[in-house]
Design a protein that fits this description.
This protein is 0% helix and 49% strand. The chain is mainly β.
Length: 124
């Protein structure tokens, strides 16, 4: 079992930045690939970015490519998502999730352990 807690969400103006964090406990963080997902009201949950166990391989959805950066610190059991140049359409609940079996692209169905989410709201 993996317990997952996200933090770092909030309200920001368009063009601003936020850094989300995701801490994990209960199992070996480095054994998992991780992903950041987001879900806006009335929409399906979508994969924003994923990262392999070593951090060597990353995936970004086209909607965030060039603006978001995923990273992980295996020594701190923490996953990050640096979000720059935020847009109102980035407004959503953001979740991090873990899996032992990730393959491109970044799809929620592949991930087993989920946090409760952190809200990101971008005002225009």
């Amino acid at each position: 079992q993996v317990q997952v807690v996200e933090s770092g969400g909030g309200l920001v103006q368009a063009g601003g930045s936020l850094r989300l964090s995701c801490t994990a406990s209960g199992s070996t963080f480095s054994e998992y690939s991780w992903g950041w997902f987001r879900q806006a009201p009335g929409k399906e949950r979508e994969g924003a970015s994923c990262i392999s166990r070593s951090g060597a391989i990353t995936y970004y959805d086209d909607s965030v490519k060039g603006r978001f950066t995923i990273s992980r610190d295996n020594a701190k059991n923490t996953l990050y998502l640096q979000m720059d140049s935020l847009k109102p359409e980035d407004t959503a609940m953001y979740y991090c999730a873990a899996t032992t079996a990730w393959g491109f692209p970044c799809r929620a169905v592949q991930f087993k352990y989920w946090g409760q989410g952190t809200q990101v709201t971008v005002s225009s």
